[in-house]
Each structure stands twice: as structure tokens, then as C-alpha cells.
TrEMBL record:
The keyword Signal does not apply. SMART domains: Mob1_phocein. This is Mob1p. The keyword Repressor does not apply. It comes from Rhizophagus irregularis (strain DAOM 197198w) (Glomus intraradices). Zn(2+) binds at C118, C123, H194, H199. It holds the Pfam family Mob1_phocein. Residues 1-29 have a biased composition (Low complexity). Residues 1-42, 241-262 are annotated as: Disordered. Keywords: Metal-binding, Zinc.
Length: 262
């Protein structure tokens, strides 16, 4: 769905005399003003966001880093290295924050693909290979069906990332909030893992179109968000034998999305 944002361009209804007086000033200021990057009212979905990719310092927005990341993805989602590369002059914690927000956003499209096939009848438990996960979105961890676990996980991660208590600013991340990055990444990984092991066709079709897991994996590797022994999806068709880690993994108390994270 396209985002319809009213145009902020000035209304050129002034008289000809006013125009002739002000035009030199307007012309001069326009040369240095960043281009307005918004979808016009009535823009069709296929025509949305058809503006060229520009450098971060050219984006005139309070959410410049988010818009820059989304622009990179639209420009070439297959260039994973470029997508996770820290922009010059930016804080790596803030860059990771924007990536995690974007991952939550795009994983919602995977949920839509899963809903018809992943039900409480077909997947009564949240499993991936030999692993089983309990849902921590409750007062006490529960054995939710897979689709509920996935939705609860995305809701919990989104709520946490939008919490003014833990992330009061998108420019500077408090040191005490950085611990949540690994917790969020581990839980998001489980969504990919369940889909790969139990809904392989959906996983492959979604990945071929969006390259989201590849981006997530590169981000996790670059910033050490997930321990290697927790990566159970085969990498390059080579399955690492991590059977010794397939125990006691259901719930780590330090990564529960508690109800006070509002």
C-alpha cells in the first residue's frame, strides 16, 4: 500500500508582480534545498516511491536514516553488503536500531503469506527442526501455536522498539537499551527458522523476492546479534551439527518481552 502524504510544495497563486520581485530569491534558495521525496496524492501502488536514490545528507527529514535505509532497499535489495554497511558519520547502534525496525515491518508480509498454511491445526506448537519455543508474550511463558507465537513476537518487538522508556530517541540509543538488540534478533530468527523447516516453499518464494533473511543474517553477523550455534537454518546447503545445543533453549528470562515495556 502506498503512503499518501500531502504535498508540502508552495501554492503558486501569487500575482505576477509578486512573482517578479520574489523569483530571484526563490530561485537561489531552491538550488540548495533537498528535493521533496513524497508520493503525490492519488499515486498508484506501482508508481509509488519512484524517486531516485540519493545520499543520506541530501534527505531532508526527521527520519532521514530510516528513509535512507528504505531507499537503499528499493534501489538494490540484493546488494546485502551495501545495505548493512554503516553510513559515514552515523552511530552503529542507531543503524542497527533502524534495521531491526525495518525487519519487523517487512516480516509482517511473511506473516500474510503464512496465514493460509500455518494454522493452529497444522502447527499447534512453535517448532523449528528439533527446537521448540514457548511464547514469552504472556504473564508466564505459554505453548502458543506457531502463527500466534510469530504474531506475538512481532508485536512484542515492535512495541519494545517504539517504547519511549527504552528508546526515547532515534538519534541516540541509551547504553542500557542495547541489550535488547540480541534478544529481538534471536526471536525474529525463530520466525525465519520455523518457516524454513515447516513451510519451505513459502520461505523460498518470499526470500527470492525480498532477500530479507540474507539481509538479517548479514546484519547479525556484522554486529554479532546472534551466536553462531543458534543458527539452525542450513547455510549454503551445509548443515552444521549443533545437536548439543538443541536443549534448554525454550526461554531465557533475560529476553522476555514483559508487559511493562510500553
Amino acid at each position: 500500500m502506498s503512503n499518501i502524504v500531502p504535498s508540502n510544495e508552495p501554492n503558486n497563486t501569487s500575482s505576477s508582480s509578486e512573482t517578479s520581485i520574489s523569483s530571484p530569491i526563490t530561485s537561489t534558495s531552491t538550488e540548495h534545498k533537498p528535493a521533496l521525496r513524497r508520493n503525490r496524492p492519488g499515486t498508484k501502488l506501482e508508481d509509488a516511491y519512484q524517486f531516485p536514490h540519493i545520499s543520506l545528507d541530501q534527505i531532508d527529514s526527521a527520519f532521514a536514516l530510516q528513509e535512507y535505509l528504505q531507499s537503499l532497499i528499493r534501489a538494490n535489495r540484493e546488494n546485502i553488503d551495501a545495505l548493512v554497511e554503516l553510513p559515514a558519520g552515523q552511530d552503529k547502534e542507531t543503524w542497527q536500531y533502524e534495521h531491526l525496525r525495518q525487519l519487523c515491518l517487512e516480516l509482517n508480509y511473511l506473516v500474510i503469506q503464512l496465514e493460509a498454511e500455518c494454522t493452529s491445526q497444522t502447527c499447534p506448537e512453535m517448532k523449528a527442526d528439533d527446537w521448540q519455543y514457548l511464547c514469552a508474550a504472556h504473564q508466564a511463558p505459554l505453548n502458543c501455536c506457531a502463527i500466534d507465537y510469530i504474531v506475538h513476537t512481532l508485536d512484542g518487538a515492535t512495541t519494545l522498539l517504539n517504547s519511549h522508556k527504552y528508546f526515547p530517541s532515534r538519534i541516540s540509543i541509551p547504553e542500557t537499551s542495547l541489550k535488547h538488540y540480541q534478544s529481538i534478533a534471536r526471536r525474529l530468527y525463530r520466525i525465519f527458522a520455523h518457516t524454513w523447516f515447516h513451510h519451505r516453499e513459502i520461505f523460498e518464494a518470499f526470500e527470492n523476492e525480498n532477500m530479507l533473511y540474507a539481509r538479517f543474517l548479514k546484519l547479525s553477523d556484522r554486529y554479532e546479534l546472534i551466536a553462531k550455534n543458534l543458527l539452525i537454518i542450513p547455510y549454503n546447503n551445509n548443515i552444521n551439527d549443533n545437536q548439543d545445543t538443541h536443549n534448554n533453549h525454550n526461554n531465557e528470562s533475560s529476553e522476555i518481552f514483559s508487559r511493562d515495556m510500553e
